[in-house]
Design a protein that fits this description.
- By secondary structure, the chain is an alpha+beta fold.
- It has 16 helices and 19 strands.
- Helices cover 31% and strands 23% of the residues.
- A hairpin with a 6-residue loop joins strand 2 and strand 3.
- Helix 9 runs antiparallel to helix 11.
- The two termini are 39 Å apart.
Amino acid sequence: MQKWFRWVLVAILVPAFFLSAPQGAEAARDSLVIATENEPPSLTTVEHDSLASVFMNLLTYNGLIRITQDTLEPVPDLAASYTVSGTEWTFKLKEGVLFHDGQALTASDVVASLLWAKTFPSSVNYTGKIAKVEELDPLTVKITTNGLYAGLLYDLGYHFNFIVPKKLIDSKNNFNTNPIGTGPYKFVKWSRGDSLEFVKNDKYFDKKLMPSIDKVIWRFIPEGTSRTIALEAGEVDFIYEVETTDIPRLKDNPDVKVTEVTSVVNWFLSLNKDVKPYDDVNFRQALSAGIDREAIVAAALNGFGTPNSAAVPKGFKGFTDKNSVGYDPEKAKAHLKDWGGDPSKVTVPIICSNETKVRVATVIQENLSKLGIKVDIVTMDLASYLDKTGKGDYESAIVSWSPSNIVTYIQRYHSRRRASNPGSLNDKEIDARVEKIESTLDEAERLALVESTVELLNGLSPQPSLYQDIIFRAYNKDLEGVVPSATGYINFNEVRWAK
């Protein structure tokens, strides 16, 4: 080949190479694009109890306590240390912590945040045991609980109790459009119906957990296979909710990593016990015995799940499935006979907010039709679904819940939660047992009480459990530090691009 031709060829191909390479390929390593199924209903800490919103809260806020991703243990976060004496808990704050707007964190911010959270009815599950919050000095806070309470640290690690600036509470700042916290990322922009954008907080107080990725973008892609295609095309780097039918395909892709963890996310049929016949234990037992959980996992989840008929999730200390009402059509008919009503006159409307819930409800519909019970599947968007379930404006719904400990899960059955959770019971014995568990600080004694209470709850079928997720996350093979939690959360400030 003549020399002049080689130079012409180079002159043509080199520019063509750079033009054909992905534009901003290097810059992409400064950002992380995450595909998620649902747009969050709120960016506040207090006006939701939505998993989609919690994802965002974990980027922008901190609490006195955080729950570790791997062991689900409560450890100090904004708190440097704490001591407890009976009902009094004293927390020393870390020095030099700054909010995103440059204000320094003080005890007055903690006091204001915790008392503010108590004013929201939806927070009662995590603030109800806090009787008093006091500032002892600029970096010291004392919390007094209503009696001995074993669950305070876990409650303080939940989003309702995350800390915001007192000045912004007093000025009635709209935290939905201006979410100011101390978290590893700062809010930039919310393009409704499309995406949310966050940027690294360079002044984050925890240097060990300082993000290495400058920008995090959440894209809302409701349809599962569309999320898969976006990952394969390089349009997103991470899928939060992986479509189960696409898992084999993603596992075979050398450019994609797929991780999985057996979760404590429990899916159940929430029944409004203020509506007949769901208030009748025999009818609830009939529903529970009539539902084929193995079929749900096979048909709705492509086998990627664990059937569960107990009142709490497997995986927690204190779990037992003794006395639980699992699939048994003949027992279901016997329970209906004990109920004494006419099943052909009952219609169970199950509300669903996504395609997986619809698939689950379809199996239940087929199962219960064999008992003469009609099921209507009612679909709606997530915002409408959360509004109805939050207000208790439903008869039945496919619901999931994933607290970080079994005490919090059992508390949902106490009658004091009926206002915000019509799936709770109104049972004096259960109430007394839950209160005893809450006030028992010795772990071995508390777990023994938990197990006997779960056994009792199992027989009452308060909210027939269906299954637990196997949580899958799919992402670019060059991402490191991905630690999926059994609760479903991920600390994205610990995720980094390989060098």
